[in-house]
Specification:
Length: about 250
Amino acid sequence: MRIGEIAALVGVTSRAVRHYHHIGLLPEPARQANGYRAYTVRDAVLLARIRRLTEIGLSLDEVRDVLADDAGRELGEVLAELDADLARQEREIRERRQVLAVLLEAPLTSDGPLSPALAALLDHAPATTSPAAAKDREHLALLDAAGDGAGAELFAALRPLAEDPGVLGLYERLDELEEAGDDDPRIAALAAELAAAVPDEVLAVIPDGEPSAAGFGRVLLDDYPPAQRAVVRRVMEELAARGRRRGTS
């Protein structure tokens, strides 16, 4: 194969191939008598590997390290890995299209598109003008958008909580703390009631040690003013403690 042919086969530009040669990432192939580079199947596999690694966010230096680890492997092993990677991508695309098909059949909302699991949860939540409830909805939408489908079990487990009319009163009490300080005496009691309202089924579908004030939890906490943040932090701590107690019982 010539440079244009291998570039087209792998899905990169000839310029990219030359750049990889220039920085030593892709070894120069043997040249024919007429001076043209002659690429082999192994060259194509290596170029495809480089493309795939850069597509998932690795820097060229990081790609170099990965390829160095692969240097002693047999061609068949590398081809099998590439084939498995393509199969994984095909599965992911099919799953995304299945979700998209469901979304296209449902009416789009202002905060959509939402996954079918989250849409079903929100459909069962009572109407309210509570700012705290609206913020909760935004956080669920963020979790839905940032997740990989693993939120479906969580949203299903939250259904009894969404249908509990007593939760509206808890949201209203949280709204009342919007301008309060983090030493407000109402914080502890409200946090305890909110944590108690969360069904045990929710704890069964979240990772050990979660929710926590790190990662998504930290982003969530930063979205609240001081007193509300203190309430939510206490709820996280209590739910994490309940999860640990369940794991040891």
